[in-house]
Design goal:
Bound molecules: pyridoxal-5'-phosphate
Order of helices and strands: HEHEHEHEHEHEHEHEH
Strand order of the largest sheet: 7-6-5-4-3-2-1-8
CATH topology: TIM Barrel
Shape: globular
Largest sheet: 8 strands, parallel
Distance between the termini: 29 Å
Helix content: 40-55%
Length: 233
């Protein structure tokens, strides 16, 4: 067995174990294999080992790999520039990184052209770190309302966050429960055309904690493919 399928097995086992320990159904958690910097061969190997969803954070990389990768659901998880939306609108199952009205407007415009309803998540900067993308929690509900009222071809399915890179579990727990509570609060407002079905949070270092705090999508790269090498980018 290759290291990829071995790693996948242990990540899946860990998801199952954690979900069950916290009274959750493991099937409610989607594993997104984060494939940035990895080539089509390794990605296809992971798909042969059962990966159904992959995550990329750069549009350029999606375009370079798209035709060589077997059928799979593509998730755009990184910062998205408006002028790049047109390149991925026909490829993305879910865009995790919507953080402005203007970006949603462009997604709506491009989605209309191909008669698609583009599913998106709103990226929230829960920790308030200046270096992070995303809206602040207090701005999130208004953005959801504005998008839902104005754009028929954009469908909000939930929230996403990137936690700080730290092993301070209390801080991580605050970030993850912060996103979960925000999602519950927005859900309670029953805003038309806004669903809070998905909570995309947790990466290799912290996905167990994220599952404990309610994640429905975890984004795991290193834990499946090994350490990334950025030197060829
Ligand atoms: C790279 C990346 C991940 C995966 O990170 P790992 O630590 O390798 O699991 C998850 N989410 C986003 C937004 C990323 O850019």
């Amino acid at each position: 067995m290759s290291y990829i399928s071995e790693n996948l097995n242990s990540v899946r086992a860990e998801i199952k174990r954690t979900a069950e320990a916290f009274g959750r159904n493991p099937e409610d958690i989607t594993l997104i294999a984060v494939t940035k910097t990895y080539g089509a061969d390794l990605i296809n190997e992971s798909i042969s080992s059962g990966v159904t969803d992959i995550g990329e954070n750069r549009v350029q990389e999606v375009m370079e790999k798209y035709d060589s990768v077997k059928p799979v659901k593509w998730h755009l998880i990184g910062h998205l520039q408006k002028n790049k939306v047109k390149y991925i609108i026909d490829k993305a199952e879910l865009i995790h990184s919507v953080e402005s009205f203007d970006l949603a407007k462009e997604i709506d415009r491009q989605a209309k052209k191909i008669d698609k309803i583009q599913k998106v998540l709103i990226e929230v900067n829960v920790s308030g770190e200046e270096s992070k993308f995303g809206v602040l929690p207090m701005e999130c509900e208004k953005l959801c309302r504005d998008i839902a009222e104005n754009f028929e071809n954009v469908k909000i399915e939930g929230l996403m966050t990137v936690a700080p890179y730290t092993d301070d579990t209390q801080l991580l727990r605050n970030v993850f429960t912060g996103l979960r509570d925000l999602s519950a609060e927005i859900a309670s407002k029953n805003i038309k055309n806004v669903d809070m079905n998905e909570l995309s949070m947790g990466m290799t270092n912290d996905y167990q904690l994220a599952i404990e705090c309610g994640a429905t999508m975890v984004r795991v790269g290193t834990g499946i493919f090994g350490k990334r090498d950025y030197t060829n980018r």
